[in-house]
Amino acid sequence: MLLAASYGAGMVVPQNPVGLVPEGARHSIGEAMVAAEGLGGANGDALAQAAREAFSSAHGTVLLTSASLIAVLAVAVLIALRNYREPWGRMARSHG
């Protein structure tokens, strides 16, 4: 969902084929590539390049967001468990 939203926000259709590109191409790299193939020539190449750049940017956004969430969760777990100590009786039995 985040990938699709980021792709849609980053997809800038080149000026020349604006009226020729289906709306779905602005929301899906697959649709954009099919449209680019249908356009052919310089317009198709420009659309395919715009789609690749939008997808790459969206992918980077998703990876950065995921990494940030993992880091925040790791810090939250460390804070939540910072004072946790295994009870002596349980620890002695499990390690002995």
Description:
The chain has 96 residues and is mostly helical. It has one domain (2-95). It is 72% helix and 0% strand. It is built from four helices and no strands. Helix 2 (29-39) runs antiparallel to helix 3 (41-81). The mean pLDDT is 83.
Highlighted features:
96 residues; mainly alpha; 0% strand; rod-shaped
Q: Could you give the topology of this structure?
A:
Elements: H1 2-10, H2 29-39, H3 41-81, H4 88-95
Structural class: mainly alpha
Proportion of strand residues: under 5%
Kindly report how far apart the N and C termini lie. Answer: 49 Å
The count of strands amounts to: 0
Low-confidence stretches: none
Number of domains: 1
Q: Name the helix and strand elements from N-terminus to C-terminus, one letter apiece.
A: HHHH
* Rg, alpha carbons: 24 Å
State the share of residues found in helices, binned by percent.
Answer: over 70%
What gross morphology would you assign? rod-shaped
Main sheet?
Answer: none
Mean pLDDT: 83
Number of continuous helical runs: 4
Quick synopsis:
It is built from four helices and no strands. The protein is mainly alpha-helical and 96 residues long.
